[in-house]
UniProtKB/TrEMBL annotation:
Its cofactor is L-ascorbate. This is Fe2OG dioxygenase domain-containing protein. PANTHER family: PROLYL 4-HYDROXYLASE ALPHA SUBUNIT, TRANSMEMBRANE PROLYL 4-HYDROXYLASE. One of its GO terms (molecular function) is L-ascorbic acid binding. It holds the Pfam family 2OG-FeII_Oxy_3. InterPro entries: Oxoglu/Fe-dep_dioxygenase_dom (IPR005123), P4HA-like (IPR045054), Pro_4_hyd_alph (IPR006620), Pro_4_hyd_alph_FE2OG_OXY (IPR044862), TPR-like_helical_dom_sf (IPR011990). Gene3D superfamilies: q2cbj1_9rhob like domain, Tetratricopeptide repeat domain. It comes from Algimonas arctica. Residues 211-323 form the Fe2OG dioxygenase domain. Keywords: Dioxygenase, Endoplasmic reticulum, Glycoprotein, Iron, Metal-binding, Oxidoreductase, Vitamin C.
Length: 328
C-alpha cells in the first residue's frame, strides 16, 4: 500500500466523508475479496449519509449497473437526486438530462426531488424499431436510438480524454499504434462510469437481448479529416493463442454497436468492402452488426472499415458485445 493510500485509509477511519468516498471507491475498484467490496460499499453508504455527493453518485452507478445485485434504476435515480441535492455537479447534469432529454435546461431549479419524479425511466430504456440493412452478415439500423443531448454529453466526456487509438497486440497490453488506424479513442473504466453511460449500455444490451454484463468497456471514437481505421474484423480469432485465452474467459465478441454522436461531417461511413456497401446514421442513430454467422462462427463477411471524414470531425460511441460476462 502506498503512503498516499495509507493516508486516505487513515482519514476514512476517522470519519472524513470525502476520504470515505474515495477509499470506498478504491476498495470496490480493486476488490479481490467479497469482504473488501462490502467494506467499500459500507464506506460509501456512510459518506453519502454524511453529505458526500460523490459517494451518493457512485452508489447510484452500482445500483444502475447491477454491481450491487440486480439492476435497480429507481433506487439509482433516488441516490442520483440525493447527490444533486448536495450540489455534486455531475449528478446535477445527469438528473436534468434524464428528466428532460430534449431540453435538459427545462429543469433549471434546485428541487431535485421534483426533477427526479419527472424521470420516466421505462421510456428512457425503450429502444426504437430496427431496420434491416443486410441479412448476411446481419446488419441493423436503429434511427433515433439516443437523444441528441445524450450524444452531446458523451462527446464532452470524451473530448479531453481521447488519444491515439491502438490496435490489439498480444505482446503489449496497451496495443500498438499503426498506420492502419489513425483515429483517436478513449474507453471508460469502472471509476469513469456515470448513469448516462450505463443507460446507453442498458439500451444496447436490450437490443442485443443480452445482460448488461456482456458489455465490454464502452469506447468513444474520434476521427478528424483524413483519419481512418482500415478494414479489420471485430471478432476474436480462434486461431490466435492470445485471443483463444480471451475467448475462454469472456466468450466471443458477438456483435458491434456503433452510435453516431454527431452528423455534421462528410464521408466517414462504416464500409463493408466484401459487401460493396457503406453505411452511416444521423446523429443519435445506431448501426449494429453481428460478428459471427448463424452457426456461431466468425463471419469473414463482417470485414469493415471506418472511412475518413472529408469535412468536419466524427464522434462515434462504440460498444462490443460478448457472449460471456465481462468485468466492470
Amino acid at each position: 500500500m502506498t503512503s498516499d493510500l495509507k493516508a486516505l485509509q487513515s482519514a476514512a477511519d476517522t470519519g472524513d466523508a470525502n476520504a470515505m468516498a474515495k477509499y470506498g471507491k478504491h476498495l470496490i475498484s480493486e476488490s479481490k475479496t467479497a469482504e473488501s467490496g462490502q467494506k467499500g460499499q459500507l464506506l460509501l453508504q456512510k459518506a453519502a449519509q454524511a453529505g458526500n455527493g460523490e459517494a451518493a453518485e457512485f452508489i447510484a452507478i452500482m445500483l444502475a449497473s447491477g454491481m450491487a445485485g440486480q439492476q435497480d434504476w429507481n433506487m439509482a435515480l433516488d441516490y442520483l437526486a440525493h447527490a444533486a441535492s448536495m450540489n455534486w455537479a455531475p449528478a446535477v447534469g445527469q438528473l436534468k438530462l434524464f428528466a428532460s432529454p430534449e431540453n435538459p435546461q427545462a429543469f433549471d431549479k434546485s428541487d431535485w426531488r421534483e426533477v427526479r419524479d419527472a424521470i420516466d425511466i421505462e421510456k428512457l430504456l425503450n429502444i426504437p424499431e430496427r431496420r434491416s440493412l443486410c441479412e448476411s452478415p446481419r446488419i441493423r439500423q436503429f434511427d433515433e436510438f439516443l437523444p441528441h443531448s445524450f450524444c452531446d454529453w458523451m462527446i464532452e466526456r470524451a473530448r479531453p480524454r481521447v488519444s491515439r487509438a491502438r490496435i490489439y497486440d498480444s505482446t503489449d497490453v496497451r496495443g500498438k499504434e499503426t498506420q492502419d488506424r489513425t483515429n483517436s479513442s478513449t474507453n471508460f473504466s469502472l471509476m469513469e462510469l456515470d448513469l448516462v453511460l450505463i443507460l446507453i449500455q442498458s439500451r444496447v444490451a436490450k437490443l442485443a437481448s443480452v445482460p448488461i454484463f456482456a458489455m465490454e468497456k464502452s469506447m468513444v471514437l474520434h476521427y478528424e479529416p483524413g483519419q481512418e481505421f482500415k478494414p479489420h474484423y471485430d471478432y476474436l480469432d480462434p486461431t490466435k493463442p492470445a485471443q483463444i485465452a480471451d475467448m475462454r474467459q469472456f466468450g466471443q465478441r458477438l456483435a458491434t454497436c456503433l452510435i453516431y454522436l454527431n452528423d455534421d461531417f462528410d464521408g466517414a461511413e462504416t464500409e463493408f468492402p466484401k459487401l460493396g456497401q457503406k453505411f452511416r446514421c444521423e446523429k443519435g442513430g445506431a448501426l449494429v452488426f453481428a460478428n459471427i454467422d448463424e452457426q456461431g462462427q466468425p463471419d469473414p463477411q463482417t470485414l469493415h472499415a471506418g472511412l475518413p471524414p472529408t469535412r468536419g470531425e466524427k464522434w462515434l460511441f462504440s460498444q462490443w458485445i460478448r457472449s460471456g460476462p465481462m468485468p466492470i
